[in-house]
Structures are given as C-alpha cells and as structure tokens.
Amino acid sequence: GPTLILALTRENAVAHWRDLLGPKTVEEAMKENPNSLRAQYAVSNVPIGQLHGSSTPDDAQKELEFFFPEEHTFALIKPAAAAKYKDVILQKVKDAGFTISKFKEESLTREMAAQFYHDHEGKPFFEDLLSCMTEGPSVIMVLTKENAVEEWRNLMGPVDPEVAKETSPESIRAHFAEDILSNAVHGSSTKEHAQKSIECVFGELDLD
Ligand code: GDP
Question: Which CATH code is given to the segment(s) 71-202?
Fold first, then answer.
C-alpha cells in the first residue's frame, strides 16, 4: 500500500529522528524503549517496525534526492518589469523556495526571443511580442526546486493580467504585469523546453 514520505528538518535531524524511532525491531523497541515510535505504533502481528529513518546524513541526502528530485526551469523577467520591479520579483522567487542557480542580465536578440516563443510564430501578436522582449535588458535565470517548471508557472500566474488578478491575486503577473505582452515574466512550459532555453542562454550546464 501507499507509504507516507516526509523530509524533516531541524538541527541534528538524522540522529534526533532515529532516537524517536527507537530500536530496530518491534520486540526490542517494546523491551528497551516502550515510549519510542516503533514501540507505540507497532502493528499487531507484524514484527517489523513501521517507521524508517535515514542512517546517516549521506544516506539522508541520497534518499531525499530519490524521493524529492530537484528540477531546473528557465525563467525570465521581461524588460519592462526588470526595469521597475527586479528586486521585489527576485525576493518573491526566493520566498517561494527557488534557488537561483544561474543569473544573467542581458538584452535578448530577436533570434533568441523568436526561439523562446517559436510556438507563436505567425500569430498576430508575434512581432509585438518580439519587440517587447527586446526593448531592454531582461533578467534571465535558471531556477531550481522540486517540481520547478510547474511551480514557477504557478507563481507567474495566468498570461492575461486581468485574469491573473481575478484567479491568482498573489501571482507575479497579478502584481507586476502592465498588459498581456509586458506581463512581467516568462517561464518554460515543459522540462524539455526549459532544457533547450537554458542551453540557448547559458550553454551546456552541469547543474547537478
Ligand atoms: P506564457 O507561457 O504564460 O507566457 O504564455 P504563452 O506561451 O501562451 O504566450 C507567450 C507570450 O505571448 C505571453 O506571455 C504574452 O505576452 C503573449 N501572448 C499570449 N497570448 C496572447 C494574446 O492572445 N494576445 C497578445 N497580445 N499577446 C499574447
């Protein structure tokens, strides 16, 4: 059946959690430390303790990476918002638990903007979008976190700021977008797009 997996944080967490668990087998736990979690929450007829904890900080690191793998996404603060709200947007990024693994301030070329938005080529707003993306320096980043692609898109909010204000009033677009084109931020929509955009701006990266 399902297992509940937790990442627990405190000073000396590995040893502290192991102390709470108590001895390995239910029998030992009952005898030696009846207040331990393994003794208190034993399941009748099952001799194996129902709780696990990493043995060492190294093991904890490995197990955390296995169950909560980090992901990278490509994120950009568009020129108009970079000029006015860079610091406050960066603070929101950090408050949401992202690590800024790469950071660059640079004006996009039309070719770069066209590559990020190639899905929209041919649409009536495509030329205006390229102009808006190349009108000044953007803040270009690689953001790292578990589930980073989806979480950054959630933090950005819906593409249209009016919709963002209605449905995601805490999102970056609700706060800082001017209109649908200068809507403050960009983020890749899939891991594959993120990988391509990251390589385009930062080259091959060894982030892991
Ligand atoms: P995003 O990934 O949330 O930025 O949204 P999309 O990939 O759908 O669109 C890329 C960018 O194109 C958006 O951030 C908008 O600036 C712009 N855009 C998308 N849809 C429209 C539209 O219907 N009209 C206009 N004027 N711009 C749009």
Answer: 3.30.70.141
